[in-house]
Amino acid sequence: MLAIRYVKSIPRYLMVRSLAPYWQDVSTGALSCIELAEIPVPALPNAEWVRISPRLSGICGSDLSTIQAQGSPYLSPFVSCPFVFGHEIVGTVAEIGAKVTGIALGDRVVIEPALSCRIRGIEPTCRQCQQENYGTCENLTQGHIAPGLQTGYCQSTGGGWSSALVAHQLQIYPVPETLSDEEAVLMEPFSCAIHAVLKVMPTAPQTVLVIGCGLIGLLTIAALRSLGFEGKLLVIAKYPHQAELAKTLGADQIFPTDKLLYTQLRQALDCQIFYPELGKPVLTGGADCSFDCVASSTSIDDALRFTRSQGNVILVGMPSIPQGIDWTAIWFKELHIRGSYAYGLETYQGAKMRTFDLAIKIIQQQSGLLSRLVTGHYPLQKYQTALHAAMNPGKSKAIKTVFDLRNQE
């Protein structure tokens, strides 16, 4: 089958890491760590697994970070190479293991990619899995499949940037007929945004700041409003097309990333601004809660400055190794800093449910809510064009770029 995979090579990795910031093509060219190749269809690990034929599979910021070798090596022990990319997947069930129940051939499904204890056949399960925090499983290198924190980073499972992959029955969620493939392929990142919002679930009259309006930032705005937040929602957007979508999804005020940002936000947040001898301005007062959906050195530093004393900062974007951050604000303002990764079991309106179930429920109730966010469809053969569109959203106006496998079914 045809697949886009990552092949581990330390020399190539180091070359891409050093050159990609100046020469983007090196990260997808002949000397990169990725390739379009014919590989065998992955086998079912056991009778509890199914084979999926992808219909659409998204390009995530974490994929781009890996391809451009700009991420942290922190997660490298939890992947197995070579692996096929793709963890944002809507597909069709093509083969069913003998012990699988409740799933039929031809079902249209989405996949929860976390590869936790029960999926790995591990008993007893770890502390996190016992609490249904599947995204933070502690056994990512054990069990009957290869190491991998998620589908799309595991040699055994394959991934969505291909003609076929395998998934455990516990990872499978049926897609309601009323939802389009384009809405369904956003289920995984939307679940991440819901998980982040429910970490703190702000309420009116609180003020919330969302930093960054790439896909995860826009989905965080959508999650806040869909989950019932009625307070003031301020947003920082880098590009005009992102700002337009942010307004559509429920942002009250949108601020560009220019030299007037601090002055404009000071006014919107009704707080005081001070100027130290060195460095960026300091604010007293600020947002009750800030969601950093970029997780760059600049955005993390800004989030700490823009949030009021005793406020919450939620790190939603995937950081690398940020530098130049002044951590004084955490100490001085007694800020509450939270990371938010993946999904698990949520408590919403007094009920407990898995994040994917809640995401599907919300998208069903608000038909068309996310339909404008898939902005580019590409075949696997044009993977370089697709990746460069995703890497350059200012030029391409991309929000979510996907590989379209539907003509290969």
Q: Gist?
A:
With 409 residues, the chain is an alpha/beta fold. It contains 14 helices and 20 strands.
Total domain units: 2
Low-confidence sequence ranges: none
In the CATH classification, which architecture of the largest domain applies? Alpha-Beta Complex
Helix share, percent: 25-40%
Total E-strand runs: 20
Distance between the first and last residues' Cα: 12 Å
Mean pLDDT: 96
Question: Helix/strand/pairing class, anyone?
Answer: alpha/beta
Helical stretch count?
14
Q: How does the overall form come out from the CA principal axes?
A: globular
In terms of DSSP E residues, the strand content is 15-25%
CATH topology of the largest domain: Quinone Oxidoreductase, Chain A, domain 1
CATH H-level superfamily title of the largest domain: Medium-chain alcohol dehydrogenases, catalytic domain
CA radius of gyration is 21 Å
So what's the CATH class of the largest domain?
A: Alpha Beta
Major sheet summary line: 7 strands, mixed
Describe this structure in words.
By secondary structure, the protein is an alpha/beta fold. It folds into 2 domains: 2-186 and 370-408, Alpha-Beta Complex (Quinone Oxidoreductase, Chain A, domain 1); 193-339, 3-Layer(aba) Sandwich (Rossmann fold). It is built from 14 helices and 20 strands. The protein has helices at residues 10-19, 61-67, 117-120, 127-130, 181-184, 187-197, 215-226, 240-249, 261-269, 297-306, 328-333, 355-365, 383-391, 393-396; strands at residues 2-6, 34-38, 49-58, 83-84, 89-96, 108-111, 165-168, 172-174, 207-211, 232-237, 253-256, 272-274, 282-284, 287-292, 307-315, 336-339, 345-348, 351-354, 374-378, 400-404. The strands form 5 sheets. Strands 3, 5, 6, 7, 8, 19 and 20 form a 7-stranded mixed beta sheet that branches. The protein has a 6-stranded parallel beta sheet with strand order 11-10-9-14-15-16, sandwiched between helices. Helix 7 (215-226) runs parallel beside helix 8 (240-249). The chain is globular and about 65 Å long. It starts with a strand and ends in a 5-residue tail after the last strand. 46% of the residues are buried.
